[in-house]
Amino acid sequence: SFKQDFDVAFLPEGGNLLVGMPQRVAFKAGGTDGLAIDVVGEILNSKGEVVADVKSTHLGMGMFILTPAVGESYTAKMTLPSDTTFVKNFELPHPLTSGCTLAVDVTAGGMAMCRVLATADIDPSALGMIVHSKGEVCHIGDRATSMRLSASSFNNGMATVSLVDKATMQTVCDRTFFVWNGAESAAEITSNSESYLPLSPVNLTVKFTDKAGEP
Length: 215
Fold this sequence. Notes:
Layout: E1 6-12, E2 23-31, E3 40-44, E4 50-55, E5 61-66, E6 75-80, E7 83-91, E8 100-106, E9 111-118, E10 127-133, E11 136-141, E12 147-150, E13 157-165, E14 171-179, E15 185-191, E16 204-210
């Protein structure tokens, strides 16, 4: 199809929307060609009242804050900045009256601020917390509680904090975040000559060092 169309995915932080709790909701918009597309719009409750204005800020992606109310459902009314006459509606995930989720902020100082959001019926002692990064376990907690973690010892790249039901060992929710602690390694490549004749052999020396300069 070559018609002008788009789709928007709405992603509550931590995976779940909880009633009565202010949460970040991310979204990503794409066109029929699979590429990102900028969108603008508003979030409406079941009465048609506007509860949030939304606008993509980078490659079709954006974020807004929503505090779901009891018994409410929410719809996103979205359009294109280039053609405001083309409007599409999208249903947001239904808010849960029982459940939990996670919020994470990584500060410039390398601290990961992990907040546990849960409804009153959830027992924090029944849940454990696991933080892992690229195959390595960085933290294990025997209770679901908000905490501050130093990310300076984490591997560079994606890290995930998960809430786990200790009785069933099933993941209840998780939140992935990015960690960057500076270059972990460096590579230096040198050759045995500055120039070569056609088809002449080339010898390369490759040297890898860690961030401390050691091989």
